[in-house]
Amino acid sequence: MDITPYKKPEYFRNRELSWISFDERVLNEARDKSIPLFERLKFISITSSNLDEFYMVRVASLKDQVHANYTKKDLSGMNAKEQLAEISRRTHELVQLQYNTYNRSAVPSLEHVGLTIISEHEKLTKEQAEYVDSYFEENIYPVLTPMAMDSARPFPLIRNKTLNIGALVQKKEDSLLSRAEDKKEKKGKEKEKEKELEFATVQVPSVLPRFILLPQDEETGQRYAILLEEIIERNIGKLFLSYDVVCAHPYRVMRNADLSIDEDEASDLLKEIQKQLKKRQWGEVIRLEVEDKMDKRLLKMLEKEFDIDEDDLFRIPGPLDLTFLMKMYGLDGFDEYKIPKYTPAAVPALMNDDDIFTNIRKGDILLHHPYMTFDPVVQFVQQAAKDPDVLAIKQTLYRVSGNSPIIAALAQAAENGKQVSVLVELKARFDEENNIVWAKMLEKAGCHVIYGLLGLKTHSKITLVVRREETGIRRYVHLGTGNYNDSTAKLYTDCGLLTCNAKIGEDATAVFNMLSGYSEPDRWNKLVVAPLWMKDRFLHLIAMEEEHAKKGQKAHIVAKMNSLCDRDIIAALYSASAAGVKIDLIIRGICCLKVGIPGVSENITVRSIVGNFLEHARIFYFYSGGNEEVFMGSADWMPRNLEKRVEIVFPVEDEQIKKEVMHILDVQMKDNVKASILQADGAYVKPDKRGKVLVNSQEYFCKEATERAEKPKEQENSRVFVPAEPVE
């Protein structure tokens, strides 16, 4: 198939602008009054942290392109300068909407349910002011480090993402003299007076709670909270005793945090990444947030010092950095304004007294997180570590939790004398530091630690256990769509497969041999591996559906992923759509494909599901002439996944499990509560619910998993899948 005609720039949406649309969908959840209040606070917080990362990485990368005079256009025909201009416009609109939501909806609603956020320290009552000042003296003052700038002290280095309070100060003797001056003289010396103002700053310490609860009103039961920066601002004069504080306002800088590592020159990747991590704190300033009522003189000074233009300046009508709302979500006493915490259900196939290896030998086991518990994945490694018949454990780690039981089990396995090989991906963005710590610990325990392949991130999720049994050596494998992280497994929707299929076991061995640099297989039995084989395989599968459509046969593709922005894949989907293939896409985040282009994408639908859990699974379905093929894995349809990472996509061949995975896709396609549908103009619109049964796919899967875990064991052992209830 020739996909060249479908690569016109006008057929593609810009990646960065598509991402902003995603963050807008997250913010829409915060604006949905049908969602409990404290859940809405979470979504405001998420939009804030999302935007931070977007600037530190994506905007930073575009800035680098401009500095390097790189004029190449993206797939939508925009150069870096054009993208930055449009990003600035869209993100300013997003931030405005975000603070409208916070100020007009969240704050009044919180007050209504018994929590008043005191936004300005001037509004404190006398009793509250006394409490705050005492709190400052005892808890805050000892931690602060005020810094001034003058001829002897240069402008201090302001760390990335830190919240700071900037002030203009004036020596007290000067200010006393100035008060004695005649008004006319004062006017004549206005410029001179400007020079006498000095800059001072103090970092709001991140080691202290961002919001402080004040004594509760005993009569009404109303609770009060004030932000840390307001307390510091109120008491800032105590930090600069020799000065009069003319004004004080919070500000925050965002720096370029995109790590650039020349791996060819890096003799020790571990040391190089550690070095680059330090630089992340001091990269180029790419965004400046200031209080909207900041003194113009102070603002001018900050703009000059950080070399910031208007496009990258955000005047904020409220507290800077709304991520504190995630901590506020954790406050006790407001459970009725939160969604009840879901407890992941047991996995029916494992609800017996047999060990995990015996259960896997009975047949492949599907895991669907967080609806089903992540414990079997942890137990898989833990049991392997203790089992005297286990000879070797091999695993890839991309992101792990702070106190990972999997890491502990791998270390124990090595201490028990087993052969343990672990690939720790040091280039996992913003988890580099954490992963370095784990890598060193595992090495000390006796594990063989691999740091991945030169120039490629290893993003695949695979664990191999080699076990000696009566019949000979048997290989047990776990393959997944998500990280080996027991914390995020409660928040991210992912799928996994436990299998002892011999062909997959052979492929798993080949994967680890490839990662350790030993060899590259001529062919794969079952697994589809990036960067060398995966893209061609997907293009082939899409082309096959197109061929079926051209013959007048049924042709259908359903693909679920986080992001879609690979030009060739999109062009292939357009070609297939033009031939009559029905294509349904479930894409949480970035989608560079356009729907509704006449004669090109009229047979394509795109929906995005944003709910209480983060949609993270990748599932691919092809009708394949009636021989339905289903794949799951770690890869999105993005150039980085298909060409620059080690990724694994695996087939689902057990007929019963295949039905279960297709059922997951089916329910998500019927979601009309948390889904938004992409329109031809690029907008995402919620489906019309009038007269329809409401389907919230995440709630549906929670209920279904719980019900299945409660069924009699005999019924589950039959391995017959019965939906809990019809979707419609």
Which helices and strands appear, and what pairs or packs with what?
Layout: H1 15-30, H2 37-67, H3 80-112, E1 115-118, H4 126-140, E2 147-149, E3 163-171, H5 172-180, H6 183-188, H7 190-196, E4 198-203, E5 211-214, E6 223-227, H8 228-234, E7 243-255, H9 269-280, E8 285-291, H10 296-306, E9 313-316, H11 324-329, H12 356-362, E10 365-369, H13 375-386, E11 390-397, H14 405-415, E12 419-424, H15 432-445, E13 448-450, E14 457-458, E15 462-469, E16 472-480, E17 492-499, H16 502-515, E18 528-530, H17 534-550, E19 556-561, H18 567-578, E20 582-587, E21 604-609, E22 614-615, E23 618-622, E24 629-633, H19 639-643, E25 645-651, H20 655-669, E26 675-678, E27 684-685, H21 697-710, H22 713-717
Parallel strand pairs: 1-6, 8-9, 11-12, 12-13, 14-25, 17-22, 19-20, 20-21
Antiparallel strand pairs: 2-4, 3-4, 3-7, 5-6, 7-8, 10-17, 11-15, 15-16, 16-17, 18-25, 19-23, 21-26, 23-24, 24-25, 26-27
What tags apply to this protein structure?
8-stranded mixed beta sheet; Methane Monooxygenase Hydroxylase, Chain G, domain 1; single chain; disordered C terminus; Endonuclease, Chain A; 38% helix; 22 helices
